[in-house]
Amino acid sequence: MVWQHVRLTLLAGVVAVAATPAARAGDCSNPCAPAAPALCTVTVKEWVPEQYTATRTSYRTDWREEAFTAYRAECTPEVRSRTFTVCRSVSEVQEVVRRVCVTVPVVEDRTVMQAHWTCKPVTCMVRRSVDRGHWECREVPCEPSCRDRMKKWFSRKKDCCDCCEPCCPPPMKTVRVWVPCKVWEETPVTHMQRVCEHVPTVVKVTTCRHEWREEKAQVTVCRLVPEMRTENYTVMVKRLVPYQATRRVAVCVPVTENVVCTRMVCRMVQKQVPVQPCVETCCTPCAPKCHHRSAGLSLRHHGCGCE
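Structure (tokenized):
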């Protein structure tokens, strides 16, 4: 539909362009110019919008209250009875034979190693330091006596012996001096040493021997006697109790309404289209102008002899 409108518009434009040179040809001084273009009636298809009324159905959400049956849990006490078995302990005296381990003393001969301590002579080498020195006679200066010391302290004159260089030798005396000479010597020494010796000896040993014997004894034992008992107990039973309640629910409700719609309708329409008539004769001076202004339309089709 759109392309038909475009084609009709282009066709009308081409016809108008072709008619324009013919109209302007009247400006020429040639009196043989063509008359105004003629109009032609054309029937074309045209799409025209048309409005119409239609009915449509839509849905809207409505909230409604409805009643329903709900259940709530209730705990009620209930008395129940049960039967069970219990074991009661009963004491009784029984005579049993049991094995007893008895310890019996026994004398045995055993060989043991007894320790005997004895003293034995032992010779060993002893090393000692011995002084092998001797006495010598030596000349040593005598020490001043108390008289000489007092005389030295209380005398005003200096003695000749107090000078820097002694003028007389000191008195000497002969003394006996021991000159040491240390020597190591090894000497054999015999001493008594206590020695322990183990001697095998047979002795009497009292030991205990275990024997198993059987004997009768009175024992008290507990015997379990089964007994049936019945008791009542209370339990809480959970039950569902129905009740009526109300709730809001969403409901889709259909609604019918009238709406105005637009549609495109194809119709046959008559239009006036300008048409350029055929030119039989044309003057030579205006032929080039007509040729250039015809917008591609050849003058041969009009029967014109000018080229």
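The CA atoms of residues 81 and 232 lie 4 Å apart. The longest helix spans residues 2-24.
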